[in-house]
Amino acid sequence: MVNDELNEMYEEIVMDHYHNPRNTDLLDSPDFEIEKNNPFCGDEIKIQLNFQKDNKVTASVTGRGCAISQASGSLLAEKINNINSTDLQNTVDLFRKLIRSEELTEEELDELGDISALSGVRKFPVRIKCAMLSWVALEDIIKQSNSKN
After folding, report:
1. Which of 56, 105, 132, 135 could form a disulfide with 52 if both were Cys (CB 3.0 to 4.6 A apart)?
2. Strand order of the sheet with strand 44-51?
3. Domain map (residue ranges) of the chain
4. Is the pTM of this model over 0.85?
């Protein structure tokens, strides 16, 4: 019974982010912009980032595709908008652990917050790429920004 309620709550979070994506306003002059697609299913994602003087991130994530890919992008945008840029890679690493069914501490789960709603995707290996699309794009931006420094 509790498991069914938990699955239902997770589904609600994913569907809310799919129907009401967060941080979709395009940035006027992004420091970094990347577009990724999944050629197997047609999912598309575009991430724009600005790094503020205080090292905080401003993010925009837009795209089109399945509920999983778009909800994942929205959850990512909500999580990274206004975080310190030094925390970006750690956030990606935590999401990878979640998707790979690796053991996460309570603190790590708390840090992921609503992103944990995507944990159900790991039951469907073919959908993992959908969930990972925006995270792979973010990681590419992190690599680009690190090579500029």
Report:
1. 56
2. 32-37, 44-51, 57-64
3. 2-148
4. yes
